[in-house]
Design goal:
Blueprint (H helix, E strand, L loop, with lengths): L31 E10 L6 E11 L4 E5 L6 H8 L7 E6 L2 E2 L5 H11 E4 L11 H11 L4 H14 L15 H13 L5 E5 L7 H16 L3 E5 L3 H4 L4 E6 L2 E5 L2 H12 L2
Parallel strand pairs: 3-8, 3-9, 6-7, 7-8
Antiparallel strand pairs: 1-2, 1-4, 4-5, 9-10
Helix pairs in contact: 3-4, 3-5, 4-5, 5-6
Length: 267
């Protein structure tokens, strides 16, 4: 385990972090590779173009923040990256696997084993305890109940909830529920962590702790994508992708880049 990072990391070499893969094969070290991805809802004059030709590569040990105004395509990008939706055009690869070519069963297995999701609405199951919520993806993937519960308890300990595993969601505070969701996203061998406004309903102190946990897992070798409206939260990332009307503008400097992109969005 690496130590928790108390400050935002330095920006990496741009050459190591930008660009989609080659026309034929995804980059060998890419965990996530989006290539010229489009997502259109509806057709004709009423069509909504949520994403327009977005390309993005995220490598192990890299956290990318995605920012932009409401309706710019941020959540759409996450759902496509996680295989929860399919692009209208373009391709999405996770660890070199083309999501569009996977059978539904294989895609579900990949999502359970390799991708962790932190949703805005948490999606905790009210009838399950904290440890049962965290263990559920492992049990669905065939892990024995005893092993799944042990790994789930370890994950809860990692997020500071060692003594609360037997509590139900409605017995936990908002911040504690968010930590359970974080533990569920990180349990097992997750290589890609997708976080959609994970601090939105939290106080600043709890939100900071959540970002530390996310940053720590990325520093341990996962790839992360963080959707946020907050410039100070984007400062935890290695770089920022700003979406405007479904089009991406990339920056490799998290703090200066955010300020410049936000200034440009107000013109």
């Amino acid at each position: 385990m690496s130590a928790l990072s108390g400050t935002a990391p330095a920006a990496p070499d741009p050459a190591a972090t930008t660009g989609a893969g080659s026309p034929d094969d995804p980059p060998a070290d890419a965990v996530l590779d989006l290539r010229d991805v489009h997502r259109t809802h509806g057709s004709g004059p009423a069509a909504v173009h949520a994403l327009r030709g977005v390309s993005l590569v995220v490598r192990p040990g890299e956290l990318v923040a995605v920012m932009g105004p409401s309706g710019s395509g941020k959540s759409t990008l996450l759902t496509l990256a996680g295989g929860l939706d399919r692009p209208t055009a373009g391709q999405v690869y996770v660890e070199g696997q083309p999501l569009h070519a996977l059978h539904r069963r294989d895609l579900a297995r990949l999502r359970r084993r390799r991708i962790g999701y932190i949703f805005q609405n948490l999606n905790l199951i009210g009838g399950l305890t904290a440890v049962e919520n965290v263990a559920l993806p492992l049990e669905l993937d065939g892990a024995g109940v005893r092993r799944a519960r042990r790994l789930a308890q370890d994950a809860l300990t990692e997020v500071g909830l060692t003594e609360l595993g037997d509590r139900f969601p409605d017995q936990l505070s908002g911040g504690q529920q968010q930590r359970v969701a974080i533990a569920r996203a990180l349990v097992g061998e997750r290589r890609l962590v997708l976080a959609d406004e994970p601090t939105g309903a939290l106080d600043s102190q709890t939100g900071e702790a959540v970002l530390r946990l996310l940053r720590r897992r990325v520093d341990e070798g996962a790839a992360g994508v963080l959707v946020t409206h907050e410039a100070r939260h984007a400062g935890w990332a290695d770089r920022v992708v700003f979406l405007r009307d479904g089009v991406a503008v990339d920056s490799t400097a998290p703090l200066a880049g955010v300020e410049a992109l936000l200034a440009g969005s107000n013109r």
